[in-house]
Write a structure and sequence with these properties.
The chain is about 30% helix and about 40% strand. It has seven helices and 13 strands.
Length: about 270
């Protein structure tokens, strides 16, 4: 073997070694591609949005601005830094809806700060001008800072029973306004109609109230029955019962909301 052939053999061997090294390097790079990329690749907002899993989106609307908060769960990065989570908040202004949303929020705030509430204060018999009979009159108080408009009431009686109406004014049945912090008396029903509706003696009606349980002061009005037995013993007892009158009343707020309330009046009756 001469010198030239020896040199050719050495060169061919070097070439094979070089090609093998290159191929091994390529295979190694392909095998560990994700590791190498994650190690040297810089983190930016675009990559973050593409690579990470979106966990939660919260939207808030506030006076024309839509605020969106997006929370991502971020995996550990192979560059010596550990990131657990990242929140990205963006605020987008919608000028077209700004004025509309502003006034909607203002209106909602006014409603919360100025609720329209009515309270049933008491009920008692009252003589009304033009009527020859007393009416149980319901006193209603507007406890609000704003008026209640178009107030109307109705007793929800069975079998189409229609109680007598006062002759004083039609305003009680056509709707009226109860001013702020003001009480107003409304004639509801006569004692005669109560007796007729429940088919009881008018003299047995003790009172009308808001409590299903008869108050002590009303129970004392009931007739006391005294009984003496043959053995000389004596006893006294009284008996009462309660009947209900469903009452519906409606009104409107200054914001245009319509309110309907179902409540109950209770008639206390002497059973003896």
């Amino acid at each position: 073997m001469n010198i030239e052939k020896i040199n050719e053999y050495i060169n061919a061997t070097k070439a094979l070694i070089y090609i093998g090294t290159v191929l091994a390097t390529i295979v190694l790079i392909m095998w560990n591609y994700d590791l190498i990329v994650n190690h040297f690749k810089p983190i930016n907002s675009t990559d973050l949005g593409k690579e990470l899993k979106k966990q939660k989106i919260e939207k808030k609307v506030n006076f024309g601005f839509v605020e969106t908060t997006t929370t991502y769960e971020v995996p550990k990065v192979k560059n010596g830094k550990d990131i657990n989570e990242k929140s990205i908040t963006s605020v987008v202004q919608n000028p077209k809806n700004y004025t509309e949303l502003y006034y909607k929020n203002q209106n909602a705030l006014l409603k919360v700060q100025n609720p329209t509430k009515l309270k049933l204060e008491n009920i008692k018999k009252v003589s009304w001008l033009g009527d020859d009979i007393d009416f149980y009159t319901l006193n209603i108080k507007n406890t609000s800072k704003v008026p209640a408009h178009h107030f109307k009431f109705e007793l929800l009686l069975e079998n189409g029973f229609k109680p007598q109406k006062t002759k004083t004014s039609n305003i009680f049945y056509s709707g009226f306004t109860i001013k702020a912090n003001t009480s107003f008396g409304v004639p509801i029903i006569t004692e005669k109609d109560i007796a007729k509706y429940f088919n009881v003696d008018i003299n047995k009606i003790l009172d009308v109230g808001f409590n299903a349980n008869i108050p002590d002061e009303v129970s004392k009005k009931a007739k006391i029955v005294k009984k003496e037995y043959k053995n000389g013993s004596k006893s006294e007892y009284s008996g009462t019962s309660t009947r209900s009158l469903p009452l519906k009343y409606t009104y409107e707020t200054i914001f245009g909301d319509k309110v309907k309330v179902i409540d109950y009046l209770y008639v206390y009756i002497d059973k003896n």
